[in-house]
Design goal:
The chain has 162 residues and is mostly beta strands. The protein is built from 1 helix and 12 strands.
């Protein structure tokens, strides 16, 4: 018990922090998405960016901040017609290549909207960058878009205290 009070004192004093850290979400729907093709998510509203590490919908590890990071995100995948959304995907891309994917499959019962969630812990070096990508596969001909409703499309992360 004595150790926990010491830890609390350190945290309260600001001796440690989960920074750099950022959170952003879509400012509007991202339309004109091609069927079943990954596209980088556009995040037009930056809520916070401690460490100035988030720009152009990309997190880049700043100088002196290599280490383990926790990332989280979601993508609101939607089509314009009922029973048209067949599959939805969200991925983290690390340094331009797909790293981790979350896929939802509605083949037997297509829907209109789904929000895919994703999270990961990554061990990163200075200059590494992480981005959020999405793909939507539909069975009909309705419009496809990455929705922004209630901040359903978002991306955030922070350095884990080591």
């Amino acid at each position: 018990l004595a150790d926990s009070s010491v830890t609390s004192a350190k945290l309260a004093s600001g001796a440690v922090a989960n920074t750099p850290a950022f959170f952003a979400h879509s400012a509007s729907d991202q339309g004109s998405v091609s069927d079943n093709t990954y596209v980088k998510v556009t995040l037009g509203t930056e809520v916070f960016d401690v460490g100035s590490c988030f720009a152009s919908s990309r997190f880049t590890v700043p100088s002196g901040e290599a280490g383990k990071y926790f990332f989280y995100g979601s993508a609101r995948c939607q089509v314009a017609a009922n029973s048209d959304l067949d599959q939805s995907y969200v991925s983290f891309y690390l340094n331009g290549s797909q790293y981790l994917e979350n896929r939802m499959n509605f083949n037997d019962n297509p829907v209109r909207l789904a929000t895919n969630l994703i999270h990961a812990v990554l061990d990163l070096s200075v200059g590494d960058y992480v981005e959020l990508y999405v793909a939507i596969d539909h069975v009909g001909a309705s419009a496809i878009e990455v929705g922004s409703g209630v901040k359903g499309t978002n991306f955030g992360g922070y350095k884990i205290i080591e």
